[in-house]
Amino acid sequence: DSGVTQTPKHLITATGQRVTLRCSPRSGDLSVYWYQQSLDQGLQFLIQYYNGEERAKGNILERFSAQQFPDLHSELNLSSLELGDSALYFCASSVAEGPYEQYFGPGTRLTVT
Amino acid sequence: AQSVTQLGSHVSVSEGALVLLRCNYSSSVPPYLFWYVQYPNQGLQLLLKYTSAATLVKGINGFEAEFKKSETSFHLTKPSAHMSDAAEYFCAVSKTDLFGNEKLTFGTGTRLTIIP
Fold this sequence. Notes:
The complex is a heterodimer of chains A (about 110) and B (about 120).
Chain A: E1 5-7, E2 10-13, E3 19-24, E4 31-38, E5 42-50, E6 53-57, E7 64-68, E8 74-78, E9 87-94, E10 103-104, E11 108-112
Parallel strand pairs in A: 2-11
Antiparallel strand pairs in A: 1-3, 3-8, 4-5, 4-9, 5-6, 7-8, 9-10, 9-11
Chain B: E1 3-7, E2 10-14, E3 19-26, E4 32-38, E5 44-50, E6 56-58, E7 64-68, E8 73-78, E9 87-96, E10 102-106, E11 110-115
Parallel strand pairs in B: 2-11
Antiparallel strand pairs in B: 1-3, 3-8, 4-5, 4-9, 6-7, 7-8, 9-10, 9-11
């Protein structure tokens, strides 16, 4: 158990819908990262937050957004969902910024039908 | 841009045999390198990391990796494979941008199968 929790574990929704994925980092970790893992794209970095502020962006679509709240939990919002958004979404946390190891949550499996 | 290449998307070894998973990096500066393991239906777990302190890095579960600058490699090894090692393994490189923001770039992964 990494100490990072993600809810829900599974999500099935229809095209065009909007969903919110939730992540609680390890106790004391200030940085949260979101990743998308799919068969065709592999593991892709989406976005990073540090202590409530956006720090780095990767291959995140404009239909996707995220935020980190004062209690340090984070939410990833996915809207106007398409079939191709079906993937595993991982949240990871680290103690600070920089080359620290990231601890991954168990992921949320999103299926868009 | 910093990146990693994992040679071999699938590797099969017999139980008790040497495990060798290959990772080459491209980086203009000394990189920070990581190996992560993903067991079925789970998130990624850190196996080991290289942060320039020592070229031979020992990790969990008997794995180790050697940083070779001359070969731009960071291959993962384990002397004797166990059935429980069956998983997907990812090599990753950390890049810090001008603002101090760190991003991990992952390789495409190597699926390790252990033959009884």
